[in-house]
Amino acid sequence: MIKLRQYYKVLGSPPFQLLDRYIFWISRRNYNYEVLLHKFFLKIRKMKKTSEIPIILIGGCTRSGTTLARALIGMHPKIACPQKECLIYNIKTPHFLESTFDFSTEEINHLKTKFNEDNLTFAERVISLYLKKSNKEFIALKAPLYVTVVNELFKIFPNMKFIHMIRDGRDVACSLKTYPNKEVIGDKIYQINSRNPLSWCIRKWITFMAAGIKQRGSKGYIEIKYEDLVNSPVETMKNLFEFLELDMPSKDQLLSYYKYEIDIKHPQNIEIGKPIYNKAIERWKRDMSKSEKAYFKRVAGSLLIKTGYEKDFNW
Question: What pTM was computed for the model?
Answer without folding.
Answer: 0.90
